[in-house]
Each structure stands twice: as C-alpha cells, then as structure tokens.
C-alpha cells in the first residue's frame, strides 16, 4: 500500500509544529498586526511632520527638538542635559 502524500500546506504545518510554531495563531492575528504596523508608520510620519512645523515656528533645529522630545518621552532628560552641557563646554573651550 502507498502512504498518503502530504500537501505542501501540510508539510509546512508539520515543520512549524516541529519547531514549536503555531501557524494558526499567526494566521488569525497577522492582519491585526499589519494594521498596527501601518498605524505605527503613519503615526511616525505624522510626528515627523508636526515636529518639523513646530521646529520651524520656534526657530529651533528639528533634530534638536526631536532629541528633546525623545528625552522627555523616555525619561532621560537629565542624562541628555548632562551630555548637552558637556558638548557645549567642548565647543566653547579652546582645546
């Protein structure tokens, strides 16, 4: 008797199971994750555009504003301030 042949999908499922991967979970959630990823991309562009406008209106270099906002958002203001102070010192001293 001939052994039943496996379909390509069955072979993939078997390989995934052997590696501990649950493809049905991925199939169920992949659309949701793609939507979240797209929203993240859109939000990043929205932030970039808004920060650019604010920087121009405020007369500040956009990259500097981004660093400041990132420091506030990640609670690293004191570390960034210390770095900026030291960098400023290096630029103003004649070394």
Radius of gyration: 26 Å
Mean pLDDT: 92
Secondary-structure content class: mainly alpha
Question: How does the major sheet shape up?
Answer: none
N-end to C-end Cα span: 87 Å
Number of helical segments?
4
User: What portion of residues belong to β-strands?
Assistant: under 5%
In the predicted model, the low-confidence regions spanning at least 5 consecutive residues are: none
> Helical proportion?
over 70%
**Total number of strands:** 0
- The dominant shape is elongated
List the secondary-structure elements in sequence, H or E: HHHH
Features of this protein?
95 residues; 79% helix; 4 helices
Layout: helices, strands, pairs:
Elements: H1 8-18, H2 23-58, H3 62-73, H4 77-92
Helix pairs in contact: 3-4
Notes on the structure:
- The chain has helices spanning 8-18, 23-58, 62-73, 77-92.
- 79% of the residues lie in helices and 0% in strands.
- It is elongated and about 85 Å long.
- It is built from four helices and no strands.
- The protein starts with 7 loop residues before the first helix and ends with a helix.
- The longest helix is centred in the middle third of the chain and has 36 residues, at 23-58.
- Helix 3 packs antiparallel against helix 4 (77-92).
What's a quick, concise take on this entry?
This protein has 95 residues and is mostly helical.
């Amino acid at each position: 008797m001939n052994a039943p042949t496996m379909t390509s999908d069955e072979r993939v499922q078997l390989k995934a199971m052997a590696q501990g991967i649950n493809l049905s979970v991925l199939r169920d959630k992949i659309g949701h994750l793609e939507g979240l990823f797209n929203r993240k991309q859109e939000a990043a562009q929205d932030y970039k555009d808004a920060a650019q406008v604010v920087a121009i209106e405020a007369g500040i270099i956009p990259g500097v504003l981004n660093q400041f906002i990132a420091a506030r958002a990640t609670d690293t203001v004191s570390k960034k301030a210390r770095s900026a102070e030291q960098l400023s010192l290096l630029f103003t001293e004649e070394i």
